[in-house]
Amino acid sequence: MSKPVAMDTDTATAARHARYGKLPARIRFEDMTEEVEAEVNVGVNAVYDPERSWNFYSCLALDLGL
After folding, report:
1. Exposed e or buried b for every residue in 25-48, given b needs 16+ CB within 10 A?
2. CA 37 to chain centre
3. What does the CA dihedral 52, 58, 62, 63 come to, rounded to 10 degrees?
4. pLDDT single digits (tens) 52-61
5. Which helix (H) or strand (E) holds 18?
6. Who is most buried in 2, 13, 28, 61, counting CB within 10 A?
7. Amino acid 10: pLDDT
8. What is d(CA 18, CA 45) in angstroms, rounded to the nearest whole number?
9. Could you give the CA distance from residue 5 to residue 11 in angstroms, rounded to a whole number?
10. Per-residue pLDDT, 43
11. What is the pLDDT along the chain (66 residues), one digit of tens a residue?
């Protein structure tokens, strides 16, 4: 068994600051986003596939196997 360690407020504050005292580097918004050009005429080439149509929605009854 481990023995409980008694810490006073200053020691606990110093330990917490050593572990969490520095925030991670800030990430710019431009680095978080990516611009991708959309495909042209996707709707013209789109084909309805009834076998795969269940992939595009979530249904609770289907998830429960009802």
Report:
1. eeeeeeeeeeeeeeeeeeeeeeee
2. 24
3. 120
4. 766 666 677 7
5. helix 9-20
6. 13
7. 87
8. 58
9. 11
10. 65
11. 556 666 678 898 898 888 888 888 899 998 988 888 877 766 666 677 777 766 666 677 777 777
User: Which 3 state secondary structure label does DSSP give 42?
Assistant: helix
For 12, 39, 40, 54, the CA distances from 45, given in Å and listed in that order, are 64, 11, 10, 20
Distances (CA, A) of 14 to 7, 19, 23, 24, 55: 11, 9, 16, 19, 52
Site of tokens 């309805």: 48
Q: On the CB side of 48, how many CA atoms lie within 13 Å of its CA?
A: 1
